[in-house]
């Protein structure tokens, strides 16, 4: 594909996908759209690298695509390419892609940061791993690898054998020059992490203090980067990729992670999933959500006022019960590897009645346990003083950064993939999306605790269905070819509602049994970007509370 010609023919006039009139969008973009592609999930418009901001502004302001969910960068034999995956917070089934090709000898594209703040980190990652440069980017530095790193690991000519030298650079106060003439200045540079329990993993917060308040904070990530995307690109669709999603958010969201890959691969290869297997997937995914939220509440309370003996241990006690159920179902406690393309690995454990009884016992005891948590946490005066009106993130800022999950819903953003872009068995069940309007640390905790109640409702309905399911109709897998080879240049972006937000997968096929490009859209990656917005002007303890309220897992941030 050249920069002047579209890679695929245009659709017939008036043809739409998922309710989007792409011809109207093409007319809106006018001369900015120099071509058009068909992806499995949406149409995509090709835009010149020097007209990115203008095109994105039109799609955001005139067409309502206010959610830049992901930015994918990749290299072809003849060009580089950035893809901006746009959706609407009000209706994520309405999607459109913006494809920005650049030449091999001059891989420079206009930055989308002025339109979507979430593009800041996404474009830095594209520069770091693929090698595309973005004009007018406010801080185009490597984000996962050291600045001294040679080459770009996802580029086609990357030499893995070349030596690497990582230099040590002394940390300097970035506000030093601003206050050099101010005799009363009291700024200080403070390292928080990377080896500190309050950073929830190997996260380094470069914090600048002005007196006792936070003047600036920069998240230094990449300590846990494991080349997960490259590993998946080296694995086969059918067998070798599925074990890896468990290792992104390795805390307890394994099946949620597996489902993100399964949904993308199944839609790309047009694979059906039996209804019975969909119910099992839905039940097990909500079990993972409860386990994840239990740990989030436990560690957050530990961050806020150091209560290990009561709150942390109470939450871990209840989480262990759910982990026992998941172990009975999958055979593993964390790295489940339970989903298969076209279904699940095996049926419910025998005797089924015992599994159902244990699940119902947990659900029956859950309301009383949640009441204990509210007594010890949300009703606690210290907790309220630390969380109410701290870490404030207004709805529009949350949207601009691409925040999703409890972080967005705690700011009143009514967005949940399970309801808004239904998959599995969710649209057949009775449950509610939880939102809070406080926009602070307290609201994000309330959302997670209330979501545990909604997950319990979903699990109970799934158990009722599974108990009554006719034995001769318990199909756990559809007939899937042993080797999957989607047509070359088939592209798709699909997502699920993970415990921490929108977990998406982009894949491009090249006609072989392995993806040519595999991109992971981590909710933690986008949510962590909001930390400076929540923390500037507040105290260090508020910064720690805000970080804890994001419920990040660095394995998913770094991938």
From TrEMBL:
EC class name: oxidoreductase
SUPFAM superfamilies: HydB/Nqo4-like, Nqo5-like
Keyword Cell membrane: yes
GO terms, molecular function: NAD binding; NADH dehydrogenase (ubiquinone) activity; oxidoreductase activity, acting on NAD(P)H; quinone binding
Gene3D superfamilies: Cytochrome-c3 Hydrogenase, chain B, NADH:ubiquinone oxidoreductase, 30kDa subunit
GO cellular component: plasma membrane
Main location per the UniProt record: membrane
EC code: 1.6.5.11
Domain NADH:ubiquinone oxidoreductase 30kDa subunit intervals: 46-163
Keyword line: Cell membrane, Membrane, Multifunctional enzyme, NAD, Oxidoreductase, Transport
Membrane topology value: Peripheral membrane protein
Span of domain NADH-quinone oxidoreductase subunit D: 309-559
Pfam families (alphabetical): Complex1_30kDa, Complex1_49kDa
Subcellular location: Cell membrane
Catalytically driven reaction(s): a quinone + NADH + 5 H(+)(in) = a quinol + NAD(+) + 4 H(+)(out)
Family of this protein: In the C-terminal section; belongs to the complex I 49 kDa subunit family.
Quaternary structure note: NDH-1 is composed of 13 different subunits. Subunits NuoB, CD, E, F, and G constitute the peripheral sector of the complex.
Cross-referenced NCBIfam families: PRK06075.1 (NF004739)
Protein's name in the database: NADH-quinone oxidoreductase subunit D
């Amino acid at each position: 594909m050249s920069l002047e010609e579209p890679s695929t023919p245009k659709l017939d006039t008036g043809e739409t996908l998922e309710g989007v009139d792409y011809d109207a969008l093409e007319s809106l973009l006018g001369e900015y759209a120099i071509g058009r592609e068909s992806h499995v999930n949406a149409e995509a418009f090709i835009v010149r690298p020097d007209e990115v901001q203008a095109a994105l502004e039109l799609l955001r302001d005139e067409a309502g695509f206010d959610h830049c969910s992901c930015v994918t960068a990749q290299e072809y034999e003849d060009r580089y390419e950035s893809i901006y995956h746009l959706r609407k917070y009000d209706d994520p089934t309405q999607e459109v892609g913006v494809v920005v090709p650049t030449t091999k000898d001059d891989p420079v594209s206009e930055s989308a940061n002025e339109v979507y703040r979430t593009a800041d980190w996404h474009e830095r990652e594209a520069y770091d791993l693929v090698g595309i440069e973005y004009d007018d980017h406010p801080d185009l530095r490597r984000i996962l690898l050291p600045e001294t790193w040679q080459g770009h690991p996802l580029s086609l000519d990357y030499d893995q054998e070349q030596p690497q030298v990582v230099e040590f650079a002394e940390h300097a106060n970035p506000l030093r020059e601003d206050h050099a003439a101010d005799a009363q200045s009291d700024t200080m540079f403070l390292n928080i992490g990377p080896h500190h329990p309050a950073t929830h993993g190997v996260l380094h917060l470069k914090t600048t203090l002005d007196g006792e308040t936070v003047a600036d904070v920069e998240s230094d990530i990449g300590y846990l980067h494991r080349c997960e995307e490259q590993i998946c690109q080296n694995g086969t669709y059918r067998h070798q990729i599925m074990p890896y999603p468990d290792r992104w958010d390795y805390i307890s969201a394994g099946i949620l992670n597996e489902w993100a890959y399964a949904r993308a691969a199944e839609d790309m290869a047009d694979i059906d999933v039996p209804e019975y297997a969909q119910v099992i997937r839905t039940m097990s995914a909500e079990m993972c959500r409860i386990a994840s939220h239990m740990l989030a509440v436990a560690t957050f309370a530990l961050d806020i006022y150091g209560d290990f003996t009561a709150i942390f241990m109470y939450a871990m006690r209840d989480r262990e019960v759910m982990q026992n159920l998941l172990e009975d179902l999958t055979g593993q406690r964390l790295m489940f590897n339970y989903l298969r393309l076209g279904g699940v690995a095996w049926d419910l454990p025998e005797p089924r009645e015992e599994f159902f009884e244990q699940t119902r016992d947990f659900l029956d005891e859950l309301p009383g346990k949640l009441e204990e948590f509210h007594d010890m946490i949300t009703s606690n005066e210290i907790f309220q003083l630390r969380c109410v009106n701290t870490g404030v993130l207004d709805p529009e800022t949350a949207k601009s950064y691409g925040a999703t999950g409890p972080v967005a819903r705690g700011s009143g953003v009514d967005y949940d993939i399970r309801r808004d872009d239904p998959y599995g068995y969710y649209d057949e069940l009775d449950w509610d999306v939880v939102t809070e309007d406080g926009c602070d640390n307290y609201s994000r905790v309330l959302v997670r605790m209330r979501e545990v109640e909604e997950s319990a409702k979903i699990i109970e309905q799934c158990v009722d269905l599974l108990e009554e399911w006719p034995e001769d109709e318990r199909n756990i897998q559809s007939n899937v070819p042993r080797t999957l080879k989607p047509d070359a240049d088939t592209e798709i972006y699909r997502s699920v509602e993970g415990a921490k937000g929108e977990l998406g997968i982009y894949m491009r096929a090249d006609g072989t049994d392995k993806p040519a490009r595999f991109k992971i859209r981590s909710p933690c990656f986008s949510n962590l970007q909001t930390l400076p917005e929540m923390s500037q002007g507040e105290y260090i303890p508020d910064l720690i509370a805000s970080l804890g309220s994001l419920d990040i897992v660095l394995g998913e941030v770094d991938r």
